[in-house]
Amino acid sequence: MKGSNGRWFRRMIPEITIYSNFINKCQFLRSLIIGDYPAVHTQLPAGWVEFFASLPPWRGKKLSDRMKLSALHALQQESAKVELWNDLTRLTCPVLIIRGVKPHPGLSLEAVEQYKLSLPQANIVAFDQHDHNIFEPDVDVFVRTVDSFLKEMKQNHQSIIKKGVRTWTI
Is 123:149 a contact under the CB 8 Å cutoff? Predict the structure, then answer.
């Protein structure tokens, strides 16, 4: 899959792509929802393509039905480690950060602390019954959380910014 500039998309992870696209245009950003990822664009290690291609079907679809192997190789080849923590301090919009708690979350407790420092206005939510896949086992928990955040943001945008970091567990 090629981007509008003809280059391969660098990552499949949309959460990371959002950072790089919007940090430079943060004055246009009205809200941001981060789902179980740190603010780091990672270098994909040797063997990543083979590992990823060997995973079982996701939501009933084999990887070969969703993406060409050549695209995976391009993603790995073009990947580079980029830390975005310092850039986040430019964001002033409301932010919702959702973290899975069960084994293998993508967002460590250390990264949560870094988010608190970089984004003091962030709402941080931990899903006790979810791992890195924050949509399962109960997608309704995710939908209710996001819906509540967006409704609160719409009703009183300034109060969310002034309240500072709030953390709760669902």
Answer: yes
Mark residue 60 as left, alpha or beta (left: phi above 0; alpha: psi -120 to 50; beta: remaining): left
Q: 15 exposed, middle or buried (CB, 10 Å; 0-12, 13-18, 19+)?
A: middle
The CA dihedral of 16, 74, 132, 162, to the nearest 10 degrees, is 0
Residue 56 CA, chain-centre distance (Å), reads 22
Return the DSSP state at 84: -
Cα separations (Å) of 127 from 16, 60, 100, 108, 149? 20, 24, 5, 13, 15
pTM over 0.90: no
Q: What are the tens digits of pLDDT across the range 138-147?
A: 888 889 998 9
Q: Chain-wide mean pLDDT for the chain?
A: 77
∠ CA 120-105-138, rounded to 5°: 95
Q: pLDDT tens digits, residue range 8-29?
A: 333 344 444 555 565 666 666 7
CA distance 40 to 31: 19
